[in-house]
């Protein structure tokens, strides 16, 4: 498949591919460092709040579904439904960030900072970088909801799906592999 054959503008696919590569590199680096201290990584990881990660997964997957519904509604010409589902997708992003902030606050209160253990350095860097993408994605969803052009909604939804995909890809090394 050639990049020209993908739906939408090629530049969004270049952006998505480059972002996926950055997160893959971070997860690979984390895995490599984990090999030097598997017991320490497992002990550090066990201090995380898995239920918050599960809640955030449900929020992002639901939000991604709303973005897909928005794209479909926009293609059908249903501007009201497209705006409503884009707003719901963005609201999911806000919910995700609220849970992530609460999680970080609990971690920091427990004395788990960037320098506590190499695991936490990766944890904060990877999940913080992802949170920045969520924040940016909320802005993208808001902008495409205002303009509501089908190709822009498609690009915004594609970016938002990348944000979802990244979360699903970083979830195992950060929260599940022990």
Structural class: mainly alpha
Instruction: Detail the poorly predicted runs.
Output: none
Mean pLDDT reading: 94
- Give the biggest sheet: none
Query: What is the tally of helical segments?
Result: 6
Radius of gyration, whole Å? 18 Å
What percent of the residues sit in helical stretches (DSSP H or I)? over 70%
> Topology as H/E string?
HHHHHH
- Please indicate the percent range of residues in DSSP E strands (runs of 2 or more): under 5%
Distance between the termini: 37 Å
How many strand units? Answer: 0
Overall geometric form: elongated
Family: Belongs to the cytochrome c oxidase subunit 3 family.
Subcellular location: Cell membrane; Membrane
Pfam family, one: COX3
Protein name: Heme-copper oxidase subunit III family profile domain-containing protein
Summarize the structure.
This is Heme-copper oxidase subunit III family profile domain-containing protein. The protein is mostly helical and 178 residues long.
Q: What's the layout of helices and strands?
A:
Elements: H1 10-34, H2 38-45, H3 50-76, H4 79-109, H5 118-147, H6 150-176
Helix pairs in contact: 1-5, 1-6, 3-4, 3-6, 4-5, 5-6
InterPro entries: Cyt_c/ubiquinol_Oxase_su3, Cyt_c_oxidase-like_su3, Cyt_c_oxidase_su3-like_sf, Cyt_c_oxidase_su3_a-hlx
Keywords: Membrane, Transmembrane, Transmembrane helix
Family: Belongs to the cytochrome c oxidase subunit 3 family.
């Amino acid at each position: 498949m050639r990049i020209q054959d993908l739906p939408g503008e090629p530049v969004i696919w270049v952006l998505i591919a480059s972002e996926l590569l950055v997160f893959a590199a971070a997860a690979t680096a984390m895995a490599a460092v984990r090999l030097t201290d598997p017991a320490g990584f497992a002990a550090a990881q066990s201090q995380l709040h898995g239920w918050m990660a599960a809640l955030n997964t449900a929020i992002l997957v639901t939000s991604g579904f709303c973005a897909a519904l928005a794209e479909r509604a926009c293609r059908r010409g249903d501007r009201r439904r497209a705006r409503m589902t884009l707003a719901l997708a963005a609201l999911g992003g806000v919910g995700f960030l609220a849970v992530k902030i609460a999680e970080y606050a609990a971690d920091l209160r427990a004395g788990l900072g960037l320098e506590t253990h190499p695991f936490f350095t990766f944890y904060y860097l990877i999940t913080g970088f992802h949170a920045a993408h969520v924040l940016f994605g909320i802005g993208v969803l808001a902008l495409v909801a205002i303009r509501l052009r089908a190709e822009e909604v498609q690009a915004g939804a594609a970016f938002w799906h990348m944000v979802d995909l990244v979360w699903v890809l970083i979830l195992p090394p950060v929260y599940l592999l022990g």
